[in-house]
Amino acid sequence: MSHHPTIPFVPYRPEATPEAAADAFLHRMALRRSVREFSDRPVSRAAIESIIATANTAPSGANKAPWRFVAVRDREVKRRIRAAAEDEERKFYGGRANEEWLRDLAPLGTDPDKSFLEIAPWLVVVFKLMRDERDGRASDQVYYVNESVGIATGLLIAAIHQAGLVTLTHTPSPMRFLSEVLGRPEHERPYLLLPVGYPADGARVPDIRRKRLDDVMVVV
């Protein structure tokens, strides 16, 4: 039996059956789409803080929480991020990506133009931490970093949608320029870039379909 301190577990109890609560959440999340057409309508810092705080509730290997969320609202910093991202994207579309990859991307309408990186009121840059620095201690022991940060990012995206905002998972490759523009230390590695804001008036999204439940779920 562990001698480390514990506290009582306080469960969340929705005012519905598990089936009804899960179905309601499903229908809400089914409206979520990756959006590339953003409005410059302001979003409060309080909203972004609450969204990131939700991501910070994610489980992680040995409770190390190996993530850093850099929230960018400065126009000049956003401009520099866009310029660097578009430079990498031009190289990607100009030769790094093979023909099959480009064919798979074609229905999404993507291209090297990343103007949304300047238009969206916020950019949230997710970094994975390769060192634990809590409580004034520094340790190179971090566990299941990619898995932990992936879970936190999923909660981040869900929280953005819950707030009535939209986002896009942008993954320029390589992403090292994000560390340089944002002045992050070596042990913080860029993981994902998400513009956050309201959709532009009349915004449109690709007419695509998600896989059916039978395609992704197996019961044994």
Q: How would you sum up this structure, described in words?
A:
This protein has 220 residues and is of the alpha+beta class. The chain has a single domain, classed as NADH Oxidase (3-Layer(aba) Sandwich), CATH 3.40.109.10. The mean pLDDT is 95.
Distance between the termini: 33 Å
Uncertain spans, ≥5 residues at pLDDT below 50? none
What class would the helix/strand composition place it in? alpha+beta
**What level of helicity do the residues show?**
25-40%
In CATH, the homologous superfamily goes by the name NADH Oxidase
Number of strands: 4
List the strand order in the largest sheet. Answer: 1-2-4-3
Evaluate the radius of gyration: 19 Å
Q: Secondary-structure map with pairings?
A:
Elements: H1 18-29, H2 45-55, E1 67-72, H3 75-96, H4 99-105, H5 116-119, E2 122-129, H6 145-162, E3 166-167, H7 176-182, E4 188-197, H8 213-216
Antiparallel strand pairs: 1-2, 2-4, 3-4
Helix pairs in contact: 2-6, 3-7
Write out key terms for the chains shown:
220 residues, NADH Oxidase, alpha+beta
Would you summarize the structure shown here?
With 220 residues, the protein is an alpha+beta fold. 39% of the residues lie in helices and 12% in strands. It has 8 helices and 4 strands; from the N terminus they run ααβαααβαβαβα.
